[in-house]
Every structure is written in C-alpha cells, then in structure tokens.
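== Folding task for one protein ==

=== Format: two labelled lines per protein ===

==== Paired sequence and structure tokens ====
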Amino acid sequence: MIKTQVQIPDDLFLSAKKTAALKEWSFAEITRRGLEYMVETHSHYPQKKWTLPSPLDLGTRSVDAEELKRIAQED
C-alpha cells in the first residue's frame, strides 16, 4: 500500500470526515472508496477494489461453554 499526502479544501475535508463518521469508516477508507468510484466511473481501465488483507492464522484455542462463562464473569 502507498502512503501519500494531498491537499483538500477545508469544507470538503470536514464533509468527508462527517460522512466517514456516519458510516463508521476511517477517513482513509472514505478516501479510498472515493478514488475507487472515480476510477470506475471515469476511466477506461477499472481497478481492482481494495480489500482488507486476510487475517493471520493464529491457531485455535478450544474453550468449552463453562470456561467461556467463567471468563465472562471475571472482573
């Protein structure tokens, strides 16, 4: 992933932040989605949509229902 800087007019930035908050997205997510939309609708070369990377397999820990109940009731 590439990190970049852009200059955004104050009113556009505030509107984007408010929209992101309403959607419970980060500002970065709303920016990526906006760029994806522009490329899809204004380009002859649609880009693949960005998705979250796959989670790492950290293995499993088998916990039975009684153990979960005990853990949940701990302070």
The mean pLDDT is 87. The chain has three helices and no strands. Residues 1 and 11 are 27 Å apart (CA to CA). Residues 1-44 form one domain.
